[in-house]
Specification:
Shape: elongated
Distance between the termini: 39 Å
Number of domains: 2
Strand content: 15-25%
Helix content: 25-40%
Number of helices: 10
Order of helices and strands: EHEHEEEHEHEEEEHEHEHEHEHEHEEE
Structural class: alpha/beta
Bound molecules: S-adenosylmethionine
Number of strands: 18
Radius of gyration: 24 Å
């Protein structure tokens, strides 16, 4: 029986993360915004007033300003760049100037007018960061009032999305005197506690990327990135069960985007395990129906708990069925009721790949059976989206099933040393 997952700081694993409220989520409730719309500082809920004036006469951060626009960096699993860009286009229509961060395969940058809150609705990136570029030669200069003000503004922009009570640096030399001084100043300006090992709000410092240096120099300056929210975007509070082999949630979200988010779709998650693909699809937008299918009672129980935690078990509640997803007749019989005699429009699956479930030897028959059974229950125009590590096996069965499904170019994803691919197949 799958166990309750202990709290973990981030969605770093193949699965998402704890379903317990993250510390940031708890502190967010304690830190109601002040009357002028700024987040209250820890221990000052409900109070208004400008950030504290520094004891030694310096005025490091005046009233936090709401920048008219922010530069936002989105990090993602390599391979998902175009999916992330498509999600940005769909959910952040005001964003503009999206470009790759030079030298990186896991980050794009964009400009976003107005508040940052819409960034938190993205499901395919790993994390979002407010970027402050400082044209200075060394971090020591961050402490000057005009630079510090910009860092503090970025911290407040993040805090307006979700509260934090502490912060930490991710930077080479973060234990230096310059960073100790900067930590003091940020604390004085925001009230956030500096917790070098486990602070919620992450402040990343790196050499400038791809921008021109200061006038007359080749010095790239520095980027200070403040993470939006106390947890990465990839952290999923709905994941309350630690199911072996559970899919990475941002990959699951990408699969839904690749298959298309269509409100009239009847969605079926074959071999659903703990339901990651189903949950991510249903959270991404409405659907006419949602069904999860697995042979394992433990899997169905895990999916039920995750759907509950995601708030997706209210009517019309997704159905969870025990059935063999490689047997066309059995699958059609199981789905007839929940789909009201209709075919499925979007089918999602990540079949076992032989380490935690199934075996490599059984993989060809399992993948071939999946494509046949999915076709048997697919409506005209249906899409089947499959995530698998069995790349050679899948190439062969997709070729063999060419009369059933037309394959789009697979998307290769890099996740924790694995390189699975996502196939989108269109029903013929
Ligand atoms: C890789 S896991 C799916 C993980 C799932 N996406 C999640 O996030 O938890 C594969 C699942 O396929 C199920 N499975 C294996 N063979 C099956 C079959 N013939 N029909 C239905 N489910 C099957 C296993 O019980 C397992 O839960």
């Amino acid at each position: 029986m799958p166990g309750r997952r202990p709290p973990r700081p981030a969605d770093g694993g193949s699965a998402g993360r704890t379903g317990r409220p993250a510390r940031g989520e708890r502190t967010a409730r304690a830190q109601q915004p002040t009357r002028d719309g700024r987040p209250a500082r820890p221990g000052q809920a409900g109070r208004t007033g400008a950030p504290r004036q520094e004891a030694r006469g310096r005025r490091p951060a005046d009233r936090p300003r709401r920048p008219a626009a922010s530069t936002v960096e989105l990090t993602f699993l390599p391979g998902l760049r175009d999916v992330v860009a498509a999600e940005v286009a769909a959910l952040l229509p005001a964003a503009h100037g999206l470009r790759d961060v030079p030298g990186r395969t896991d980050a794009v940058e964009l400009h976003l007018p107005g508040p940052l809150a819409p960034v938190a609705t993205l499901r395919t990136p790993v994390a979002a960061w407010v970027v402050v570029h400082l044209d200075v030669p060394r971090p020591k200069s961050f402490a000057s009032p005009e630079h510090l003000q910009r860092i503090v503004d970025a911290a407040y922009a993040s805090l307006r999305v979700a509260g934090s009570s502490s912060f930490r640096f991710e930077a080479a030399g973060s234990d230096s005197a310059a960073f100790a001084r900067l930590a003091d100043l940020i604390h004085e300006a925001t009230g956030l506690r500096h917790a070098p090992d486990d602070g919620d709000l992450v402040v990343r410092v790196r050499r400038g990327t791809g921008r021109t240096g200061r006038a007359g120099t080749t010095d790239p300056g520095w980027d200070v990135l403040v993470r939006v929210g106390p947890r990465p975007l990839s952290a999923r509070t709905w994941r309350v069960v630690d199911y072996p082999g559970a899919a990475n949630a941002t990959i699951a979200a990408a699969m839904s985007r690749l298959g298309g988010i269509v409100p009239t779709d009847r969605v079926v998650n074959l071999m659903c395990g703990s339901g990651t693909l189903l949950v991510e699809r249903l959270l991404a937008g409405p659907a006419a129906a949602g069904v999860g299918v697995d042979t394992s009672p433990d899997a169905l129980d895990a999916a039920r708990q995750n759907l509950d935690a995601a708030g997706l078990r209210r009517a019309p509640a997704p159905a969870l069925l025990a059935a063999d997803a490689t047997d066309p007749a059995a699958l059609a019989a199981a789905l007839a009721g929940p789909l009201d005699g209709h075919g499925a429009d979007l089918l999602l699956a990540d079949p076992p790949w032989g380490t935690r479930h199934g075996s490599h030897a059984a993989s060809p028959a399992l993948h071939a059976g999946l494509l046949r059974a999915a076709h048997a229950v697919a409506a005209p125009g249906a899409r089947l989206v499959v995530l698998t590590h069995e790349v050679r096996v899948m190439e062969r069965v997709v070729a063999d099933a060419a009369d059933l499904w037309a394959a789009r170019e697979p998307v290769r994803v890099f996740a924790k040393g694995h390189h699975p691919r996502i196939w989108v197949l269109d029903r013929r």
